[in-house]
Amino acid sequence: MFYGAVVWDPWLIVAQIVCLQCLYYITLGILLSLLVGTRVSRLSLVYFFDYATITTSTVTGWCVIAAILISSVAGAIYMLYLIERAKKCLDFSATLYIIHLFICIVYGGWPSSITWWIVNGTGLAAMALLGEYLCIRRELREIPITRYRSNV
């Protein structure tokens, strides 16, 4: 995927988006169950998609914020293996967060909390920048070339 002509494959792009979105929500679910599940009596989709749960006034809100930001870091690592190209990281990160915004709008209405926008903007920036950094490091690695001695 690193060298040669890049062929535009819409099915591959859709599959990468779906995989990245699923991995992000699985990671977010695991982190929410670890950080928030111990604090509340019942964990629900409210903590995933309702903007009101992202607040700095409660410890539970800070746990939700931490889960979202850690999931963004994990998303950058997923992009290293799924996307593999530094110049595509911003596109896939923005797509993930735009889809998340639409799901949040459908679930709980337009996010009117400034905290929601700051946390998700920070998550988008962290995922895109860390993903680009990791992919650039991989792209700039030396290609190992083994040298064989001939017995002639």
Automatic annotation (TrEMBL):
The chain crosses the membrane at residues 12-39, 59-83, 90-110, 116-136. Pfam families: SYS1 (PF09801). GO terms for biological process: Golgi to endosome transport; Golgi to plasma membrane protein transport; protein localization to Golgi apparatus. Its main location: Golgi. The keyword Translocase does not apply. It is a multi-pass membrane protein. Belongs to the SYS1 family. This is Protein SYS1 homolog. It comes from Arachis hypogaea.
